[in-house]
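Quick question about two entries, pasted in order.
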Amino acid sequence: MKNELSGFGTALLFIIAGIFFMVVALFTSSLLRPARPNVEKLATYECGEDIQGYAWGRFNVRFYLVALIFILFEVELIFLFPWAVVFGQKALLKASPTWGRIALIEMTIFTFLLVLGLAYVWAKGYLSWVKPQPKTEPFESPVPQQLYDKINEKYVKKLG
């Protein structure tokens, strides 16, 4: 009788070792990390930026138009790559020169349509960017300013 592991046994040992390592790492980190939640730490933006307006604010339509135009031209460029690779193989062109000419004409038409689309988008003014003026509504923090000052004093004393 052999005492060797099969391929599945080895994979099972790696899975068990991975799960064990993950559990040990999470347990160790829970013991070592500080757990001192406060109002500042639990705020939406811990970086200190004040919230302006609502999260459901309106965006300018130009964001979506530029994104759609970008995706359109990127997808069309993806079609250009395989053609360039195949067309670049000289052995294929020597084997059938007629197909090489047909492929060149097809890609010339495709590229012309791309340029025509770019000219249309440019003429319509979709590529010119006008920075919209933000419309922010006043926001009052539910946390009083005195509490912020108290927290800041406490941390200044710890750091100082």
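Here is the second entry:
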Amino acid sequence: MNETIRELLARKSVRAFEDKEIGREEKEAILLSAVNAPTAGNQQLYTIIDVTDAQLKKALSESCDHQPFIAEGKMVLVFCADCRKWYQAFLDAGCEPRLPGAGDLLLAVSDATIAAQNAVVAAESLGIGSCYIGDIMENCETQRELLHLPKWVFPCCMLVFGYPTLQQKERKKPERAAMEHIVHENGYRDMDEEELKRLFASRTGMRTYEEWMQAFCDRKYNSDFSREKQRSVKEYLKDFDAEAFS
């Protein structure tokens, strides 16, 4: 097993950082890795917002489900699916482009998250930890105001970086599901109840499967923040398909 694969297998989210700044050379290497990620048709359908203002970090720590560690991040990047810049360029060049649609958005989200993962891998290789923040998709109106997001720009993920504390380094990585449940050969297959129980068996601890599943459903899937995310994303989607989401 080579070093890259070892780092991919060992990497875990980091939410507590040493009081040590990320150097300019390391930051540029992370950003360079991000913008050289695979991209659809070499379009780079994303924009990366480098959040350097301490007050803006603090505001994002509140708007993203009240997570104080975001404000303490030594580097904070927001990856935006950007369908606006190409549309504007087409107009400026005298083309007659159609309006950006849902398919364009999904392609741009793919581009942006691939770039984000490149940044994560690069950071890990430098001993810098990271944490994805999906809550950037919540509170559409607030995030748009904070980050000056125009129409057809969607903040699909945020990354917080920093050097992990010793406790974070030693913290055990949560166990992932066995490949047999995740990798399906030649097509999707529905898993029956017994296989689903095996899939999640390592997570239930001292509780029964049903007890753990109910608690997780309440805490995550049916939570207030999850419902807010659905509302907020629906607002962004209105830009891409006014009739379907009116």
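Reply: The first strand starts at residue 46 and ends at 51. Strands lie at 46-51, 75-82, 129-133, 153-162. Hope that helps.
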